[in-house]
Amino acid sequence: MRQGKYPFVIGFLIAPLALYGMFVLRPIAAAVQVSMTNWSGLSPNFDFVGLENFQKLLDDDKVWLAARHHVFLLVTLPVITIALALFFAFLLNMGGGTRGGMMTGVWGSKFYRVVFFLPQVLAVVIVGVIFGRVYAPDGSGVLNRFLELFGVDPVPFMAEYGLWSILGVLVWQAVGFYVVLFAAGMSSIPAEIYEAAVMDGASRVTIFFRVTIPLLMETVKVAWVYLGILAMDAFALVMVLSIDEGGPDGATTVLPVQIYKSGIRESDYGYASALGVALAVFTIIFAVLSLRGGKRNAVEH
Amino acid sequence: MANKSEKRSGAGVLNKLSHVALAVWAILIIYPLIFTFLAAFKNNTEIFIGNPFALPSHWDFESFGRAWTEAKVGTYFLNSLIVVSVSTFGTMLLGAMAAYVLARYEFVGNRFIYFLFIAGLAFPVYLALTPLYIVVQELGLLGTHTGLILVYIAYSLPFTVFFLAAFFKTLPNAVAEAAMIDGASHTKLFFRVMMPMAKPGLISITIFNIIGQWNQYVLPVSLLPGGAEGQEKWLLTQGIANISTAAGYQADWPALFAALSIAIIPMIIVYTIFQRQIQSGLTAGAVK
Hints:
The structure holds two protein chains of two kinds.
Chain A: H1 5-34, H2 52-58, H3 61-94, E1 98-99, E2 102-103, H4 109-117, H5 124-134, H6 142-148, H7 157-160, H8 162-187, H9 191-199, H10 204-215, H11 217-231, H12 235-241, H13 255-265, H14 269-295
Antiparallel strand pairs in A: 1-2
Helix pairs in contact in A: 1-14, 2-14, 3-8, 3-11, 4-8, 5-12, 8-11, 11-14, 13-14
Chain B: H1 2-7, H2 9-39, H3 44-48, H4 62-69, H5 73-104, H6 110-119, H7 129-138, H8 145-170, H9 173-181, H10 186-197, H11 199-214, H12 218-223, H13 236-246, H14 253-273, H15 275-287
Helix pairs in contact in B: 2-14, 4-14, 5-8, 5-11, 5-13, 6-8, 8-11, 9-10, 11-15, 13-14
């Protein structure tokens, strides 16, 4: 190379690396350090307290509640979202039956695709505020007014079924994304495979379970990891939708909410950082386990 | 025709059921949004006691005016616009520069730096939330748009670098070599040749970043504290969340719903126009 390669490389890397180091890497390293101190933020002095914060964390009822809620979401959110999305994607791609041995999508599939994906571009916070009225505990709530038609008494959604209600919003928002993802995956499955299945007289139900799903397994696993990471978050929804930001009485709290409350609100930096470390460990274990599991049983096409 | 459909009557029933299932989900998506828009025209009584499926008794845009000025949604909207435009531009410029160098140049530490960026993908933002707050405070950037913009860029870099590095690797060498023989400098090669060639990838990831940053909540709510002066700096998501949590029964609910409509409608319009690009932009990450 005629001109210096290194000056160019350094010139291009220095700004991104500086920002990234300052605002991402340094805070991550600091989180681990601070988690072992009793820094309250009020005084500049703090002591190294070892694993005391982690001990406190294990004795904190709210943390255990939050962890249980994450486990609940970790199971329900991916299962329900993926099942619905696969179903809708299949209907959109192949619900129209067979025409000349080819599977076709239902009428209006383009419209459905656009509508289903729409919640994805809306801010979670805004969706949360809207669902405050959807879940209103009396006849002025959209859902309760609808249930009234069937003679159901008003349900206090957020007070009694808070976590399920939050799950409902998460699913509502996520499904469309995976419909688009799966539909794209389905349309890349070679038509001959379907033609052969149709020739053999396979019904659409059989085709869905025996052909489509096995061939989409890789995409489904990616979806699983993404939805799992979503289940570890839920911060914005819990903050705006639940009663008392994670209540009533911790019934909908999640770790990010606990981190925000003890770190930003109460300036309990040491403890909040310990919670952050716990959440990160939890997330990384989940991601590694699901990616590991994903390596096996892959079907090639 | 009749003959054909009779033959496949089983398929016909299935077809109808498919339509019902799809239509039900479409209504579930659309109705809450229609409700929001209608509620902007209702009054507090209609919202709190009335039938949520009823139309408003009056049609006037007063609540929109109140939301825009009194509830400061206008200010929040412009703040979001400023922050997201600058930070997305910064993310794309710095992300593309880093990704390009990492993808197409061999140098000592390349793998290590690439790995550093990718590692950022594994950590939830909440891990570093408290120390980040302290870092921003120490720099005197707490409560400033500059601070938030720099943080947005930093947190968007891992995915942007990851995605674009993969994209730059796929670009052919021949064009780059020809440009070098013509005497183009490395910088010129990047801006004049490589960036235009990478356009499809750049568009996808730009859309991804705009939507992600526009919808951000935890970062502004942590780094732009309130107070009389601080509130002027707030972004749309945080402003609306505040109106909704501060609002009791006496509060101006029509204005809240007007605010929600103001936040939603531009997104719906932009989405309808660019839905193809937006869908591929947002799903691009999962396809990789």
